[in-house]
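Next comes this protein:
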Amino acid sequence: MNAINHAATALIINKKWPNVPIIPVLISVQLVEFLWVIFNLLGVEITTTEPVVRAVNDIHLAYMPFSHSMGATIFLAILTWLLFTYTLKRPVWGVALAAALSSHVLLDLATHVQDIAIAPGIDTPKFGTGLYGIPLIALAVEIAYGIFCWWYFQGTKLLLAAIVLLNLASLSFYWPALLGPEQLLAAEPKLFAAVIGVHIVTGLFAIWFFAKEQWGQSSGGA
C-alpha cells in the first residue's frame, strides 16, 4: 500500500476517536513501515529485485517477519494497548493506537503478493492477495481507498488533492511501460528502503498539514 494511503488511515482513526492526539495516530499507522526501513537498512530483513526494475512487482519483500508478519503486528498492537491502558491510564488511546498500528498489515495483506508471514520463525505459508501482480489495478484500488479515507473524514478539497497527487506521483512504479526513477533501484535494496522512508515522512506530513485544522473536530467516540 502506497505510503500516502497508510497515512490516510489516520483520518479514519481520528474520525472514530477524535480525542486521541493525531501525532501518535500518524506514527502508529506507519510504525510497521518505519520498522521495515530500519530492519532493511541494518540487514535484518531482506528485499531483492529483478535485474531491471520497471514496476512494483519487480521488487520482492523476501524476508520481513519482524516488521510485517501477522504475529509481530498482533504482538505490537497488544503491547501498545497494554501500555496506554494500564501504564499510562489512557484506555481510549490504547484502543485507537492499537487499531491504527494493526491497520498497516491489514492493508498490505489486501495488496501485496504472498510475502507476509504468520510470525517470525514461521516462514511458510505466506499471505497476500497478489494484487501487486497487476500494478495498475493495484494503484486504482489504492487511490480509491485514499479517497474513501478522505470522504469518511469529510476533508477539504486540498486534502483530497494531496492524496490523489501523491498516489499519482508513483505512477511509473505501477505502470511498467512508463519509465521512471524506479529503474535506479535494481540491486539496491538499501536505497529502496531509504526511498520508502522518504515516502513515509512525505505522506505523514501531507496528511497532517492538509487536515490539521480539522483534527479532533469529528463526532466519533471519545
In short: Strands lie at 46-49, 59-63, 116-119, 122-127.
